[in-house]
Design goal:
One of its GO terms (biological process) is methylation. The protein is an alpha+beta fold. It contains eight helices and eight strands.
Amino acid sequence: MTDIEFRSDVTVELVRASAADSDVLFAARVSTLGEQTLGDAAAGVEASDRDRGLINYLMRDRHGSPFEHNSMTFYVQAPIFVFREFMRHRIASYNEESGRYRELRPVFYVPAPERKLVQVGKPGAYDFVDGTPEQTAIVDEATREASAHAFAAYQRMLDAGVAREVARIVLPLNTYSSMYVTMNARSLMNFLSLRTKVEGSHFPSFPQREIEMCAEKMEELWATLMPMTHAAFAAAGRVAP
């Protein structure tokens, strides 16, 4: 039987980007200056206080469209249940690997020991706290056992000549998949506002930890591309314009 791999992390890579603070300035200033070249929008030169002020103004007053004239494509590896949450955000383009056309790998998510396990409160006003050692042990054991059993059933069907699209139905939601996701900065800010829990946000969010792990990595990559926009987003309480 193929060796099974268990992971407790996610992978996020920036594979393609056309995104800079100058794109925001370029798009915003057409309103008052008319047609420009990208060079006129401070591309490739140090930003001025006027540039920062304009981006802060656009963010604060929620003039959102100038933040749409850019693009980032991320490669993400995560368990399937995370992708189902991603695709609730109908503000991006997704292409995921297909269990119809390829044999899925035996890679499964198991929560790390530090993953909080117990929900307290009620929906809309709840938090998660650490589990007991016994709870941590049963989650780990049950997840590994169920994953191994499911993959053995999947492999038996494939070995018997059953089509991949049928055999895959027994695989659990903690099976790792991969996808490309493409979005602009405005869409990403909307995603981050909902899928990260950050002190000081105007609107508190309560994301599932696994999608938050993806969001944190995406935000870190975006911040290097558009540092003024990212700083303005944080200063405005992480509200998408």
